[in-house]
Specification:
6 strands, Rossmann fold, six-stranded parallel beta sheet, 41% helix, single chain
Length: 189
């Protein structure tokens, strides 16, 4: 399952969907919040229909009676990319006011992987406490923090590195992932 919320960074959700679709290893179920749809259009010029075209199934955020809201619907887990502080806080508090939050709650209660690409900075103590609660519940907090060891040449490479790390976390590694292999080795004679 992929959830996309209104936090800045809709490119993370877009690239995640593209990579999942290209890999073909998973059936993709998508839920976007209304603010996620708006942010995606403002940041990428893409409509919700563009995102939905990359998924096998998509659901209205208000549809809390659909199969994603039930633990009896078996999934491999859920990624929320990007994850707003509002969504993160609601999940931490167990407030299932929309399908993204309810699906995340179900993911946690069923002990499945929940990965949150939280997009916020700076963080105050309330944010950190919510993050701690979620980590204690079993969620994986994976803010898209760029790595520079692979010497990225573009924003796309920075985005891909964060998305590739998430794919690793859910057990669907991308063959394109650039991994740290230590500093260049020198030959001794």
């Amino acid at each position: 399952m992929v959830g996309i919320t209104g936090a800045s960074g809709s490119v993370y959700g877009w690239r995640l969907l593209e990579k999942l679709r290209a890999a073909g290893d998973a059936e993709i179920h998508l839920v976007m919040t209304r603010s996620g749809e708006r942010t995606a259009f403002l940041e990428l010029g893409k409509a919700a229909a563009d995102f939905k075209a990359l998924a096998d199934c998509s659901y209205a955020v208000e549809d809390i009676g659909c199969r994603l809201a039930s633990g009896s619907f078996s999934t491999g887990g859920m990624v929320i990319a990007p994850c707003s502080i509002h969504t993160m806080s609601a999940i931490a508090a167990g407030i299932s006011s929309n399908l993204v939050i309810r699906a995340a709650d179900v993911t946690l209660k069923e002990r499945r992987k929940l990965v949150l690409m939280v997009r916020e900075s700076p963080l105050h103590l309330g944010h950190l406490r919510s993050m701690t609660s979620l980590a204690e519940m079993g969620a994986i907090l994976a803010p898209p923090v760029p790595a520079f060891y692979h010497q990225p040449q573009s924003v796309d490479e920075i985005v891909d590195q964060s998305v590739d790390r998430v794919l690793d976390l859910i057990g669907l590694p991308s063959p394109e992932t650039r991994r740290w292999d230590g500093p260049p080795q020198t030959r001794s004679k």
